[in-house]
Amino acid sequence: MAAQTHIKVIVQEEALDPCQATEDYQTSDVATGKYGGVVTFVGTMRDFNDGHQVSEMYLDYYPGMTERHIEKVCEEAAEKWEVMNILVVHRHGAIRPSDPIVLVAVWSAHRANAFDACRFVINYLKERAPFWKRETTPQGQRWVEHNTKDPAAEAAANNTVGIRRTA
Amino acid sequence: MAAQTHIKVIVQEEALDPCQATEDYQTSDVATGKYGGVVTFVGTMRDFNDGHQVSEMYLDYYPGMTERHIEKVCEEAAEKWEVMNILVVHRHGAIRPSDPIVLVAVWSAHRANAFDACRFVINYLKERAPFWKRETTPQGQRWVEHNTKDPAAEAAANNTVGIRRTA
Amino acid sequence: MNIKVRYFASMRDRMGRAEDTVSVDGDTITVTDLWKKASGGQDLPASTLIAVNMEYTDSAHAVKNGDEVAFFPPVTGG
Amino acid sequence: MNIKVRYFASMRDRMGRAEDTVSVDGDTITVTDLWKKASGGQDLPASTLIAVNMEYTDSAHAVKNGDEVAFFPPVTGG
Q1: Which residues from A are below 8 Å from B when comparing CB atoms?
Q2: Are A128 and D57 a contacting pair at CB < 8 A?
Q3: Second label for B4, Cα 20 to 30 Å away, from A19, B114, C69, D47?
């Protein structure tokens, strides 16, 4: 399947207009009349987290590595489910409440595949993709901590993705 | 949950612009900064079905009944999964290949609920909603047949929806 | 009493019209008998679905004054 | 040989810089020893993640000339 799936991953600092991004990509890259549906997920910054007000978030990332790992996960999704196109656009840098942070769009002949692939990719992005959050709250700025007892195990898990790996 | 979920169902003959419809509804009806994500499904007319070319499709519906039954299914989804808003826009009348036919958009604080509710509603729309398709192929026009051995059982199933009913 | 009867999709083509207003003597009539009156004595085609006041029901349903009855083929979804 | 070392997020704040170029004698050096040189003899903080040439690896990894090594805290996702 992977060879037939077109994948595009963008990590950008500019504001994300999910509709425009989806339409532009669809017009230029998706075969007209061949797909039955497109499932999209748009993640938006909330104005609260863990019970406190968040006025701004800063997303750090590793240029090159972040895109490469997201692409690998899209390829993995395309091996599991027959889909035609996958588009991922993710913000980095300063983000304000109600800004769109991430768009995942999946085109497929059959909707079940599009739902499964979209959910697989966004779960990776939200849980394991190489991004680091710094929040600005009334108490000041803080890096969001995700404590790890075993960095070697976490590194291995991040490399293989494997959220639903069967092997 | 149903009381807290805002539901809007539109069946229209006019062309559907899924992006515009989603953005307009989001601007007017969805609480800013409170939802974490929106899952959308957009179904598009394909130019083939059962192996033959389809140049046009006509969708008949039952004004009043169709909307009412879709609303019931959205309410059922809102009882199963905590979601904030559900928007459904569905075309009727003459539809051409690559026209968007249906939009389902679900806003939620947690993405898993939005995925599940969106999928539940679109499965109903595609399988049980009161629409009837007439296709125009090189061989002429034909109503798409869905043969039923037991109309009473089908009627009961259509009333209860129950795709994943637990009782 | 008068009953509004509606036909959709291939059922409308078959009847050659979208709706009827059927005059009925008495307070109630079954869907089966209503169909007979509306169709000029035909049997209800197999696999026809029935809705009364926009809820699915069966052919034994007792129709009352002011009800709206619809006949249509199995739905195909959108 | 020269090794490019990069720091992200709280690790960049901790180091006070985004990257280093570390000069190393010999053909290879473990990530652990590279960190010691870059940090002025500190131990690698617990739960630090390591990538060499943008792939996750562990502190025993043998770094070679031209490799890019990155140190960062556990990812938080997007």
Answers
A1: 19-20, 22-23, 32-48, 97-98, 109, 111, 114-115, 118-119, 122, 126
A2: no
A3: A19
Q: Is D47 left (phi over 0), alpha (psi -120 to 50) or beta?
A: left
Give me the pLDDT at residue A164, please: 37
pLDDT (tens digit, 9 = 90+) per residue, A69-125?
999 999 999 999 999 999 999 999 999 988 999 999 999 999 999 999 999 999 999
What digits encode the pLDDT tens for the residues D2-57? Answer: 999 999 999 999 999 999 999 999 999 999 999 999 999 999 998 999 999 999 99
**Domain ranges in chain D?**
2-72
pLDDT the model gives residue A161: 57
Most distant CA pair in chain D, distance: 39
Residues of B with CB under 8 A from a CB of A: 19-20, 22-23, 32-48, 97-98, 109, 111, 114-115, 118-119, 122, 126
Structural domains for chain B: 6-157 (3.90.1170.40)
Q: How far is D19 from chain A (nearest CA, A)?
A: 12
Gap between the Cα atoms of A30 and A33, Å rounded = 9
A48 beta partners: A53
Just give the CATH number of C2-72.
Answer: 3.10.20.30
